[in-house]
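Customer escalation, tier 2.

The customer says the design service returned an amino acid string that "doesn't look like it belongs to this structure." They asked us to rerun it and document both sides in this ticket. The original structure tokens are below, unchanged.
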């Protein structure tokens, strides 16, 4: 029962925060006379920067350290595998 109330309370708090953010953004845009598409574009660039910076720092946590250089050698990218650098054709 307590977890149900906690979840509902968190949802209500998040809705209040979102509504407050929208109202503040509208007042800020009208006060400083920014074009709405400029604001949306800048918000998108900020989100892209935050996403790339956070995902780039976590690469080694998910894929491991490639200090030996083995990951690139195992990936063929659609090319046929070569054995010893030279492929022998039958015949």
């Amino acid at each position: 029962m307590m977890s149900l109330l906690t979840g509902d309370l968190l949802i209500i708090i998040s809705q209040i925060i979102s509504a407050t953010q929208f109202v503040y953004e509208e007042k800020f845009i009208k006060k400083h006379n920014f074009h709405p598409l400029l604001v949306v574009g800048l918000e998108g660039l900020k989100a892209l920067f935050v996403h790339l910076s956070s995902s780039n720092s976590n690469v080694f946590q998910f894929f491991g350290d490639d200090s030996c250089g083995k990951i690139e050698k195992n990936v063929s990218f659609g090319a046929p595998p070569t054995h010893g650098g030279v492929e022998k054709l039958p015949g």
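Tier 2 assessment: The sequence is consistent with the input. The CA atoms of residues 29 and 36 lie 7 Å apart. The chain has a mean pLDDT of 76. Sent an explanation to the customer and offered a walkthrough call.
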